[in-house]
Amino acid sequence: MTSMTAPKTAPTEERVTPGRTRSTLAGRLIPYGYLSPTVLLIVVLMVVPIVMVIGYSFQDNVIVQENPVFAGFANYAKVLTDPDFLAALENTAIFITVSTVAHLVLGLAFAMMLNTQLLGGVTKAVFRIVYILPWLFTIAVIAVIWRLLLDPSGVVNYVLHTLGLVQEGVNWLGDPGKALWAVTFVNIWSGYPFFMISLLAALQGIPHHLYEAAAMDGANWFQRFTHVTLPQLRPVIVSMGVLDLIWTSQQFALIWMTTGGGPLHATEMLSTYTYKQAFSEYEFATASAAAVIVLLLTMILAFFYVRQQRER
């Protein structure tokens, strides 16, 4: 008895037509087409200006003269040895450090108060409105309000004089010994609501059973705060802290509209120093070098932020 075997057929190759190839290529390019407007804006508004500023920082007499001269690192040496720049660097370090720590402490304190079960719903709603008000104002409005409040004949001095804490009006924004702390206080007041909202959302995301387990183990409120609340909030606190350092280091409008960097450079920041070099002294090469230094410092902070986000 013979077995019948089916004849083998040769594999057929699928024929790819030119129209199908074009269709596949077009499908692959569609996502890049959607991204192209955003990429174009980034290149035009960010990449090109940054490259131009870096180029200006290595030249002398840029913009104001037709034929600038290559200066190498002379502009960087001039900036790094300028006493005004060093004072601005110190003021900026104090400003951003105190502001960030105060934002964190106040934001966490108010967030925990709004998250507590001891307050009723109506009371929490009222406090939410009151605490978030500083974040709703623009920098221009905040600067005008606090210039009036901190005026020697303003409300702050009136209250302090009524309480017997001062004998005469204090020029908070005009005294070199007090101006930096005054603008730092204003920046703290205007910036803590963002921390408060972010930390409140993080607090409401902590599982309640963690607190119940800690209470069953005999932990008091402080131990629950240090061993449950803070570890759960750590990723948010670190992210917000690094972002606040970056944002505060670039603060310009508040300083410019309250003190202008004075008196006697007491509130001079890196941002106001760079602005004055460009548009008051018309030293665009020096301003470019200062801007590049600020960019490098900001990129260091951004590196830590990105690394922390990857660890999460």
From TrEMBL:
Family annotation (Pfam families): BPD_transp_1
Keywords: Cell membrane, Membrane, Transmembrane, Transmembrane helix, Transport
Subcellular localization(s) per the UniProt record: Cell membrane
Transmembrane segments: 32-58, 93-114, 126-149, 179-203, 242-264, 284-306
Domain ABC transmembrane type-1: 89-305
Cell membrane in keyword set: yes
GO BP: transmembrane transport
Predominant place of localization: membrane
Topology with respect to the bilayer: Multi-pass membrane protein
GO cellular component, as recorded: plasma membrane
Family assignment from sequence similarity: Belongs to the binding-protein-dependent transport system permease family.
PANTHER family (alphabetical): ABC TRANSPORTER PERMEASE PROTEIN, INNER MEMBRANE ABC TRANSPORTER PERMEASE PROTEIN YCJO
Name under which the protein is recorded: Carbohydrate ABC transporter membrane protein 1 (CUT1 family)
Organism the protein comes from: Nonomuraea fuscirosea
